[in-house]
Amino acid sequence: MHPYFNSRSLLLAIGLLIQVFAMAQNRDISYLSSGGKLNPLQANMDIRHYTISLDVDIAQQKIAGSTDIDIILKNKADTLLFDLVHLLEVSKIRVNNKPVKFEHRNDKIYITADGGFQAGKQLVKIEYGGVPPVAVRPPWYGGFTWTKDRSGNPWVAINCQKEGGRVYFPCKDHPSDEPNEGVDMYITVPKDLVVGGPGLLQKVTSRKDKKTYHWKTNYTISNYCIVFNIGKYKVVSKEYTTINGNKVPIQFYVLEEDTAFAKKIIELKERDSKVLEKYFGEYPWVKEKIGICAVPNSGMEHQTMITFQNKFEYSKIGESDYSANLFHEYAHEWWANKVTNKDWAHLWIQEGIATYAEALIHYDLGGQAAYDQIINRHRRAIKGKKPMVGGEELSEDETYAGSDIYTKGSFFMHSLRYVIGDEVFLATLKKLATDPKYTYDNFVTTDDVEKLFSGESKQDLKPFFDFYTRTTDLIDVSVKETGYQKYLVKLNNYFMDLPFEVTTSAGTKKMIIGKDGITVDSTMPPQVDAKGYYYKKVTVQ
């Protein structure tokens, strides 16, 4: 012990450590998870529009400003309920321009007023500020990332899919409600920096040593996509003509130090756009932009401004360069942003189909062998620890953690394609991505997707959907010798008649295996589903 470190100093030091630990614990937001069971107070509110106005103090890592929330109350209410992380302090709230009482506790804001709030339109203005949570492992564990680029310029990113938009603005944090009339963002930063955001840049206003960027989207948008990024960006643009003949700009918010890499990214974006439009229809946000923003963490599907990890490294599909990070997040413009799950319980829809989109571009660029290779990789990666759909009204954590929503979701699409055939599968997948019933303001569940595919294929696919999405079971196939050169091929956990390719000494034939199985003649034990269309196990007896 240092000679001047007496017992009083030791007690003071221990006290300080306890205080620091308590503060650190208080800043822990790992328990936050978007979604879950919808509170009745929030079920009564229909979010129409957000206006977020914030001054970002990069030196102090603070934010200050306000959020205006336009809502429609379905019924009269005595309380309005919004979500906002406890780390930010609310200073004032007005409803319809009148001061109201409020309580901010447990990451929620409870607003009350004498006489309550009448059904119909309400405008809520919440003023707040403070130090927002810092991301621990973005984008999976979100918050703000405050860092610098290689040249020493400030670089700020926000991620909040797990925790929800409440990490920095007051909102109704549930996937079942998006602002139907869009979002306006007014973000003020030091004048030498640039803000990238969703929608279209309306105006940049300068005052003294600061600039305010006004971003606006008129489309409905998920809370976790209502984010912005700050950096020493340069905007590299090129016009793209969609499959329907509409003109939309591709805009890459690239760090100034990396502008030499921008042309390549734009070229990949053009090619990827054509592939995705071929399978899923026109780019969903043609009235705004195809945006990309460089960030210091793995990319995310932020609407009209997907983020791209700042590593310009590519793999190969055949002779073509490919970035899985860039492509997967871009596929989410269709699967997550346009086709959105109503409840995190059905997260496989957007993650699984976006992952399957990777298999489709592998086919387009590398042929059947490349498609088979990535599909086999997805199958091998399935862990089978929990069902893809584990119930209803689940939080993001409850569905995401330990789930196979990516790889099994993709492989499920592969299996479904085999069951109903290419022509019906591809047409139905495009219908899911283009029909207004399933897109933009409307949301989907697993049952919605099943009913669509069942209707289009004229088959009852519910048992198939339930088996893949609501269990961790493999299809259990047995091959049993029953006589001289005779074998019984049977599904031991039969749930519906399924087509299988069965290879015998006479060759390969597609056969329907029902509840009682099928008997085949062969001089050798037959092989079942050798190409791997199903998530299965085969036992030869």
Explain how this protein is built:
- The N terminus is likely disordered.
- Among the domains are: 131 residues, Neutral Protease Domain 2 (Neutral Protease, domain 2, Orthogonal Bundle); 66 residues, Immunoglobulin-like.
- 25% of the residues lie in helices and 35% in strands.
- It has 541 residues and is α+β, with helices and mostly antiparallel strands.
- It is built from ten helices and 30 strands.
- A hairpin with a 2-residue loop joins strand 26 and strand 27.
- It has an eight-stranded mixed beta sheet with strand order 5-4-8-2-1-11-14-13. The chain has a four-stranded mixed beta sheet with strand order 16-17-18-19.
- Helix 3 crosses helix 4 and helix 3 packs across helix 5.
- It is globular, with a radius of gyration of 27 Å.
Descriptive keywords:
alpha+beta; Immunoglobulin-like; 10 helices; 541 residues; globular; 8-stranded mixed beta sheet; Neutral Protease, domain 2; 25% helix; 4-stranded mixed beta sheet
